[in-house]
Amino acid sequence: MRTPLDVLQKTYGYEKFTGLQEEVTSRVMAGGNAVVFMPTGGGKSACYQIPSILRQGVGIVISPLIALMRDQVAALKQMGVRAECLNSSVKGQDAALIINSLQRSELDLLYVAPERLGQPGFIEMLARVNIALIAIDEAHCVAQWGHDFRPDYLRLNILAERFPNVPRMALTATADGPTRREILQRLSFTEDDIFATGFDRPNIRYTVVPKDGENIQLLNFIQTYHFQECGIVYRMSRKNVEKTAEWLCKKRIKALPYHAGLSPETREKNQARFMSEDGIVMVATIAFGMGIDKPDVRYVAHLDLPKSIEAYYQETGRAGRDGLPAEAWMSVGINDIGFLRRMILTGNAPEDRKALELRKFNALLAYCESANCLRQALLGYFGEELKEPCGNCFTCLTPPSKFDGTIAAQKALSNVYRTEQMYGVNHLVDVLTGKETPKILSQAHDKLSTFKIGTEYTRDEWISIHRQMVSQGLLDVDIEGYGGLKLNNASWEVLRKERTVALRKDPIIAKKISAKTKD
Ligand code: ADP
Ligand code: ZN
């Protein structure tokens, strides 16, 4: 009998398992279910591929992206594994041939697009073949409030109902709690099925700089640190994708554009060049990236803000998959913030969804403004604690100038407490700066002891102070509720004068804080 390790060594040519591959494969080999939370590049594919190869029958893999399926199938075939895929790009005769070999039990793995499951007769056909396991890749696409929601994924629970005795897997690099809970619930898994590794990517260096002529900043960054290396540059709009790509080309950097407005042929051609040539810079919207498995991407640069920390983590996760040093570099402009906020508010989404997006966006801003280790802030958002500053991010390497913000923090916290821990930052700042808004008057917040105790700072400064406190874990945002700020243990330590608070004077986003403290 071949073991998972045999396959890993002989078929893949790897010496030993990484992450939780060993634990996951043995659970599934024994017929159990597994939900795998491992970071991008963590080696999730082998977790379902190896049991598919070893177990009787075919492994069915649900995957949202045609390009991703194709790459995986090509790689598997090259290793001698019998893999195929069925999606909208496989037509007529080709599809019939694949279904034939499926029915004759001649496949180890079949990648299937989620919409297939809704086609008449498909599930019935699966029911007639021997299935080794069912794996749902990029499982976060099932989360309705996540950033990659795909309606077709909601249908996938039918697999649990129709194939109760087949081992099932869900895999994703998503780390946030609400999305994880949604995956368990919608795809019928239990806490017991979870296999989760830490999310730190120690080889990635995180940097956030204020935007100041982003194209020139980018060019300097590339020429100084990543000359002729492969990278991805994210921009929000198609127009800016093209502008930045053209501009880099003029500066003799090999750059290609990628966005959903380009023809499928152009997109495919550019992606193929990115995958195969050395030193290509792909300037893209977020249409580019999911499932891109290029090990030597040395940097991911964001010239515009991403939508959330989850999105940022996933996008930057495409750097340094080979484990060698890589960079996640972002430039943040104050104008972009207002723009993105307006985009969220004026979008077509229902009100509660907009509110959620806004809270997630604010959490990202808090990350950008972190006075302390960016890695600690990033992992902290995902509920993971890094004991010491990492020593390998921009704030660790070039500490920003700080001031003693203990008294400011105490004022802010006591204001949160007096207003009963249910308001967002705007109202809180109105109280601190003593604005007599209708909301303040109707709640009688002008009668609180914290009303107008913060006149030494401007409104912008107070907003930055709150954000920095969130990013340092001194205040919690009620992400799943209404987004009010709440106290936590660390807040009480500050209120009880058991700890001091250092804040940065030159927050990336807000205007400089004139560190005058009035006691
Ligand atoms: P994920 O799907 O989690 O993003 P992949 O499955 O694509 O990650 O794996 C990332 C990279 O690591 C791939 O190039 C893969 O071949 C490689 N890899 C996977 N397992 C191992 C292992 N046990 N040892 C060394 N490299 C591995
Ligand atoms: Zn750090």
How many helix segments? Answer: 21
Mean pLDDT across residues: 91
- Judged by helices, strands and strand pairing, the structural class is alpha/beta
- Strand content of the residues, in percent? 5-15%
Give the helix level as a range of percent. 40-55%
Distinct compounds present: adenosine-5'-diphosphate, zinc ion
Number of strands: 17
Shape category: globular
Low-pLDDT residue spans? none
The side-by-side strand order for the widest beta sheet comes to 3-4-2-5-6-1-7
The biggest sheet, with number of strands, parallel, antiparallel or mixed sense and barrel status, is: 7 strands, parallel
GO molecular function: 3'-5' DNA helicase activity; ATP binding; DNA binding; four-way junction helicase activity; hydrolase activity; metal ion binding
Family: Belongs to the helicase family. RecQ subfamily.
Keywords: ATP-binding, DNA damage, DNA recombination, DNA repair, DNA-binding, Helicase, Hydrolase, Isomerase, Metal-binding, Nucleotide-binding, Zinc
Enzyme class: isomerase
Characterize the structure shown:
The model has no long low-confidence stretch (mean pLDDT 91). Helix content is 41%, strand content 14%. The protein is globular. The protein starts with a helix and ends in a 15-residue tail after the last strand. The protein has a seven-stranded parallel β-sheet with strand order 3-4-2-5-6-1-7, with helices on both faces. The chain contains 21 helices and 17 strands. It has 519 residues and is α/β, with parallel strands linked by helices. Helix 17 packs across helix 18, helix 17 crosses helix 21 and helix 18 crosses helix 20. The protein binds adenosine-5'-diphosphate and zinc ion. Zinc ion binds next to helix 15 and helix 16.
